[in-house]
């Protein structure tokens, strides 16, 4: 039987970061638990619930924003000491709110991730990991890419300190002291780590990870290697995972996996088969879930899931029934409770409305005075710009702590705006003059009331790069706007991967010149996404990429004074050659460029493109036939006389139209890629074949693979 979970909104604090809310251990067997949360105003709030109302235990003064909150204490005792990371400092509070620790670390950057185990403190800035024991520096490690989270396997089970770092380059790094023990490849950039079952499982070696593209997995971290146990893809195309907890919410004696995502989804997975988890329940909130915990908060005897959202709401999903079963007396008692609660809320609302009017009048008077100083209201925007592997598009997610009025999107690079199902905003396009202002896209999204989260999708063209700008205007007075910029890179559809197929026919671009390792690294960062901005340690580095649209690949290896770029797509090499020589010219660096073109690679790329081209041409033909076939159906009454292939088009008309609408200009993109491939092939030979492009387009309309390859060979 499925348990029914009722939603309860307890309290709103300031904007919260990832993993900044915890439940303190209960003082007795049936007692409720206190909630402690840290927000970006720098306030630590601890409260309990009595008769459905939040009762404060303590609240600290505002300050710098809190980036992490963890519970600690001596090993094998209740973990009830509260530790918060503020800038580069760690502060400790007792459960009553008394500060007992202020530890200023030697980190030059703000703390991004924190984990506590007994007297051991594990801290991470963007690229740096530090281990402290009793506030004394023990170990240090410089990561190759940004660190998103950190944890340590339980010392009482594995008998040694084994920290694990979740890094942006799709890798978990397992450390021993200050050294890298080994790396674990995972299917996406890991954003959060948690011990399986809350204790690392029977062995203490099992950790659960969640990725920014919504995948979930469990791996066993042994002393020598990692053993993957299970992995769940993101079939439903939900948001990235921000938080994970283990708690028995279903009451079956086995802890479920609680997952919070950045699109507001809360998921409960249980282990029916004892191996792979199965999604049992899910619940949608309207904003991202920054923290998630299982426990007993609202009423003793009733377990619940508590979530902290981005804008600071503490929301519970409780197993307590909303309508109690029983006699009329109990119903009457309940209604009286509810009535008193409603009347107190009404009074509070009236007082707030009066206060708002008074403050508005005060602001109007002060703004009209001769000594008036205009004040711009500050608001927080949580944004994420990521490449989706499934459909080779970019997702731009904008989340604001207050309701969004409108978002203006502008780009100086050619972009297609794609439809998003979850998007309820009304979009209107403005005509662009691409010549004087370099404007290729100008669109406005007008949001409905109470929309705090907006998701947009865009698809770029490789080789055409620039900046996408989002002007976010919330529903606050006086009107104010924030601009957020996102780089569209020359090879924008490439995504980092762990390895490539070395047997493919490859083209090679070789660069030599008087440039430093840092300079060539900055050029690669400019050209490709998912490359860490910090220059890698060592003298040489290799990165692998895959094109999410075509499936072609790229290998980059470079050091001081030389760089090698290999790809099975000649257009990728051509784009790199143009952009890198342009960047070197800007810095007045003389480059010696040489290349090795493999003729077979062109045929190989055409064979990769052709099935996509065939599918899109067939889809376009079917869509163009739908109106005519529907007209026939109206005139004739039935369509039994039609050939089966035409009848199937009519039956699938809605799905075909939906698919065509979801990916506009897909066919034109493929035509453009084949045309670029044709021009690039001959550009490396020093021949200009632009006059033959109309003939190529005629052959493309015929969609004959052999004819297309023959044309490329004969031209």
Automatic annotation (TrEMBL):
UniProt keyword Coiled coil, yes or no: yes
Gene Ontology process terms (BP): intracellular protein localization; non-motile cilium assembly
Boundaries of every BBS7 platform domain copy: 494-596
Record keywords, A-Z: Coiled coil
Keyword Oxidoreductase annotated: no
Any one Gene Ontology cellular component term annotated for this protein: membrane
Superkingdom in the source lineage: Eukaryota
Stretches assigned to the BBS7 GAE domain: 377-486
BBS7 helical hairpin domain segment(s): 599-712
Signal peptide limits: none
Domain spans labelled BBS7 beta-propeller: 21-319
Matches recorded under SUPFAM superfamilies: WD40 repeat-like
Coiled coil: 335-369
InterPro entries: Bardet-Biedl_syndrome_7_prot, BBS7_GAE_dom, BBS7_hairpin, BBS7_pf_dom, Beta-prop_BBS7, WD40_repeat_dom_sf
Protein name stated in the entry: BBS7 protein
Species whose genome carries this gene: Oreocharis arfaki (tit berrypecker)
Gene: Bbs7
